[in-house]
Amino acid sequence: MELTDLVKMLRAHWASIVSITLLGGLLAFGFALVQPKVYTSNASGIISTGQNEELGVALAGDNYAKSRVKSYLDLAESRAVAEIVIEDLGLEATPGALLSNVSVTNPMDTPTIKVSVSANDPEQASRIAEGWISAIGKQIDAIENDGSSTEGGESIVQFRSLDTAQVPTAPTSPNIPLIVAIGLALGLAAAITYAFIRSLFDRRVLSIEGVEEETGKSVIGTVPLHQDFNKTGRIIATQGGNDRADRAGAEYAVAEALRELRTNLQFMDVDNPPRRIVITSALPSEGKSIIVANLANTIAASGQRVVVIDGDLRRPMVAKTFGVVPGAGLTDVLIGKADVKDLLQPFGTTGNLFVLAAGKIPPNPSELLASNAMGALIDDLAEHAMVLIDAPPLLPVTDSAILSARTDGALVVAYARRTTYDQLNEALGNLERVSAKALGVIINAVPMKGTAADGYGYRNRYYSYYGANEEDLTSPAPTPPAKSGAPLPEATAETAHPGTTTPTAEPRSEHIPLEEAFPPAVVNRPSPHTNGATIQLPPLSRRDVIRSDRPRHIRR
Fold this sequence. Notes:
Elements: H1 3-12, H2 14-34, E1 39-48, H3 55-76, H4 79-89, H5 95-99, E2 102-105, E3 112-119, H6 122-144, E4 158-163, H7 176-201, H8 208-215, E5 219-224, H9 249-266, E6 276-281, H10 288-301, E7 306-310, H11 318-322, H12 330-334, H13 340-343, E8 345-347, E9 353-356, H14 365-369, H15 372-382, E10 386-390, H16 399-405, E11 409-415, H17 421-433, E12 438-446, H18 490-495, E13 523-526, E14 534-537, H19 542-547
Helix pairs in contact: 2-7, 4-6, 9-10
């Protein structure tokens, strides 16, 4: 792991690191509070050899005292001293228990003995310290003088009290600052370990680089998270320009991301750009239907014709997303019950976007999608417009793989910070097994703020630049109609009801005439005589399309 990776890991998990570190400090503080308070009192005594006016004799006596004090350390920590203290103070403790709370030391190169006594009561600690110094003096006197006090027979070694034990005012244990500091340090270590392990085993889609490294496929677009998308409002109103006074940064960001995705599709293959595209995902609820609808709307806004086909014959969402008439659609066309020209429903104000709903839910969706009629329908529509197919997820069913094999390829949508690399690789593997082409990956719902946005390239973008002032707007932005479209065939409309099943039928295989499927409109086509500039031409007929210099797509 490089330093930059470590910094990214810490930035990504900073909240967890701070929380775990503080938790360690709080646990340490709570542990310190429940510990019993211990008070320590100190007392000391000194061994002397009397006074002498001669310097040499005095130095010899001092050295003798220092040598003797080392032998008295064991005496000071003996059970005999403890028994004297217990007897003098009237304590109920045993000598062993009392000795465990007493520490006797000799400061280096001094004839001093220092006694430290710990107890739960500060006054008792002071009394024991004083009593211990007194007991040491008695024991030394007994040894040096052999218990006698006759005149002229006393030893020159004497032990005297040096400091009076003071009553401690504050406990020496627990040391709350030290315990809390240790708890914080342990918490920080645990937090960094947790962040490292989580980063190591986190297989979610967290960055563009991660997707490309794990899958070997290019990320051709990232769509920011937009909280206003719901079951009824799934198409953004803005086109990413100064068309709204409300500076909704997320909506502008989505619009601009879709325009970028549109551009990437156009330049994916300049000589032969894809015109029959399946948009799918690894698992449900990853936003593929929303991306299909908004991408189609964005492409239509550029002047290019688009047909959206609801290829999800299990859980169709296109009709609800666009707000068009449901009930009759793709299944009716495939079984020969209706013509596609009667079921294509226009949407929006551009006149370039048409929707083909799923129709009634059939019992054999895979067979219908794999039929020759489906391939012929896609080919015929692709000669007049770009075809976007909203397909089911790749992992639960095989429908998307079947459709992808009959088109120019598939765009796989991955939900940021939810879809895993394993799921994405498995979905791409399903495409490879049927020799379908994966055009790329679209990462949906990427965050735009915070450290989580770093991996998707949105951290330093400022979409609040877009938007117009109220006085600059001469008219409100166009909003998609709730329901629009050409009249449905009478027989189909009477039986149209979402959720019903259609008896299994053999789909027809002949091409469907589309000369009148699209209403008259102006089509933008590049002219080789104007250096790539667009000129206005009347709509092409089927014969003109076949004779045009555009390479035809060969159905697999």
